[in-house]
Amino acid sequence: MKRRLLLVSNSTLHGGGYLDHCQLNISDFFGKDVKRLLFVPYALHDRDAYTKTARDKLKTLGYEVDGIHEASDPVDAVRKAEAIFIGGGNTFRLLKSLYDNKVVTEIRRRVLEDGVPYMGSSAGTNVATVSINTTNDMPIVYPPSFSAIGLVPFNINPHYLDPDTNSRHMGETREQRITQFHEEPHTPSVLGLREGSMLLVEGNKATLLGTTRARLFTRGKASVEYDPGSDLSFLLTH
């Protein structure tokens, strides 16, 4: 399998600017062969402003950016893309727009069959997985399915937060919500990516990158912590 994925937990890390914390990873990932990225801003309402933010930042790294919403034919834009970057925002809005514009299947084909590099951040990482069932977002719109692009055979929870023992908040912790997900049958593993972490997938190899650990939740098993640099390739064979 030719897939190359950079799945980032968050686009902005506390104390830094947009994509600052992962800009070296982005440059390493896309390299010098890629000149233009197709940016998918569907997760936010103001697509023009969002595309400008991505365009301005990626230009400093040497890449031109085309917004998919600027194309008259989104499917054709995916067909011609050198690389794809799906930004964060509301995951339900993002997935609905991907289905509405009929690009889910074409993105999957380009990435898995043609080897077009795919980068996602936050919601863009969510939609690269099996489903959006483990997003943190409110269902502000209703996509035709919760099934996502399916570039990897597991789910991700971006912005994963550890329980705060000093908090008086009585709502569920992230861990409790993921446990509820696994109470349903046939649910895939969930990788909790803390802010500052990202997953690099190259073919059948997966490596945890960044500055923070990740937590893996598997149905019927105890959760496991992984340090940056860990080989998580086993997740791709489940």
Low-pLDDT sequence parts: none
Biggest sheet strand order reads 3-2-4-5-1-8-9
Task: Please give the number of β-strands.
Answer: 11
Number of helices: 7
User: Could you tell me how far the N terminus lies from the C terminus, measured between alpha carbons in angstroms?
Assistant: 15 Å
Shape verdict: globular
Task: Tell me roughly what share of residues is in helical segments.
Answer: 25-40%
What is this entry, summarized?
The protein is of the alpha/beta class and 238 residues long.
Keywords:
seven-stranded mixed beta sheet, alpha/beta, globular, 7 helices, four-stranded mixed beta sheet, 238 residues, 11 strands
Walk me through what this model shows.
There is one protein chain. This protein is α/β, with parallel strands linked by helices. It is 26% helix and 20% strand. The protein has seven helices and eleven strands. It has helices spanning 23-30, 47-60, 74-80, 91-100, 104-112, 123-126, 174-182; strands at 4-8, 36-40, 64-67, 84-86, 118-121, 155-157, 190-193, 197-202, 205-210, 214-217, 224-226. Strands 3-2-4-5-1-8-9 form a seven-stranded mixed beta sheet, sandwiched between helices. Strands 6-7-10-11 form a four-stranded mixed beta sheet, with no helix packed on it. Strand 10 (214-217) and strand 11 (224-226) form a beta hairpin. The protein is globular and about 45 Å long. The model has no long low-confidence stretch (mean pLDDT 96).
What's the layout of helices and strands?
Blueprint: E1 4-8, H1 23-30, E2 36-40, H2 47-60, E3 64-67, H3 74-80, E4 84-86, H4 91-100, H5 104-112, E5 118-121, H6 123-126, E6 155-157, H7 174-182, E7 190-193, E8 197-202, E9 205-210, E10 214-217, E11 224-226
Parallel strand pairs: 1-5, 2-3, 2-4, 4-5, 6-7
Antiparallel strand pairs: 1-8, 7-10, 8-9, 10-11
